[in-house]
Structure formats: structure tokens, C-alpha cells
Amino acid sequence: MKKIVLAGGCFWGVEEFISRIDGIVETKVGYANGTTANPTYEEVCSGSTGHAEACYITYDETKISLTTLLDKYWEIIDPTSFNKQGNDIGSQYRTGIYYIDENDKDLIMQSKASLQKNYTKDIVTEVMPLKGFYAAEEYHQKYLKKNPNGYCHIKLD
């Protein structure tokens, strides 16, 4: 099984969208690449922790390739929007691809460069190694499955 962490605004929608893809084994939402250990949702929302709301993904690469997963990810975000997705504004809503396997970096960078050809504005999605991930509080996990009418900036249907 392979693992990667994707940030794309509010983590509820990212998790729900990604969890529906064939080959996804597990998802969990949390806080990635910040400076505070074990932050709370309220701390992350304050903008003081440096964390992005993100989705930790375990996938079966015999069923879905990283390239295909990234193609699907690019469909649900505006990669040119800095610290904002939909109505969500703040550094915690930035877009990011945080790799765990160093061997994935080149493929991620190629995917980003290929996508850039479709935009006149620069893609601001950060690509970095995962420096830390802390699972969000339980009520955030599978939030849109528990609350089907909950807010989501991603079109899920």
C-alpha cells in the first residue's frame, strides 16, 4: 500500500471525494506540515500553527496509480488560489501535496508542470515531503458521511 497526504481546502470534502475512488484503502483527515504538535481544530483555524487541513490517504497502487490519483485531486481544487478554496480562507486551506515516499516527488512535479500548461496564473499548490501529520478530532473523521448535508466546497455528485 502507498500513502500520500493531500490538502485542498476544507478536509471534509477532500476526504469524501477521495474515499469514493476505487483503489483507496483508507482516508483520515488531520493537520499537516505545521509547527505545533497535536494541534486542536481551533488552534489550526487561528492560523498560528502553520498546519494545512489535509487528508492522509492509503491507496492500492495496483488499482490506482499516483498519476491518476493526482489527476483526480487537480479536478477538485483551484491550484492557483493562494490560501483559499471555495468560501474557506486562511493558510490552513492552502493546497498541498505532501509525499511520504521520496520516489514520488518527480512524478508529482511532472504532474504539476503538466497542469501548469492549462493556466496563465501560477499554480501555488505546494509540493513538500510530509513533515508531520496529526489526526483531527473524531467528529471530523468521515464528516460528510455522518452529516450528508454538511458544508462542502467540492461538487461531490
In a nutshell, what does this entry contain?
The protein is of the alpha+beta class. It has helices spanning 11-19, 41-45, 66-76, 105-116, 143-146, and strands at residues 2-8, 24-32, 52-59, 84-85, 88-89, 95-99, 126-129, 133-135.
Account of the protein in words:
This protein is an alpha+beta fold. It has one domain (2-146): Peptide Methionine Sulfoxide Reductase, Chain A. It is 26% helix and 25% strand. The strands form 2 sheets. The protein has a 6-stranded mixed sheet with strand order 7-6-1-3-2-8, covered by helices on one side. Helix 4 links the parallel strand 6 and strand 7. Helix 3 crosses helix 4 (105-116). The mean pLDDT is 96.
Number of DSSP helical runs: 5
| Strand-residue proportion | 25-35%
Number of domains: 1
- Name the strands of the widest sheet in spatial order: 7-6-1-3-2-8
Overall CATH class: Alpha Beta
Q: What's the SSE pattern?
A: EHEHEHEEEHEEH
Summarize the biggest pleated sheet: 6 strands, mixed
Spatial gap, N to C terminus: 28 Å
Estimate the global geometry from the Cα principal axes: globular
Q: Mind telling me the CATH superfamily name?
A: Peptide methionine sulphoxide reductase MsrA
Keywords: Oxidoreductase
Protein name: Peptide methionine sulfoxide reductase MsrA
Domain Peptide methionine sulphoxide reductase MsrA: 3-153
Family: Belongs to the MsrA Met sulfoxide reductase family.
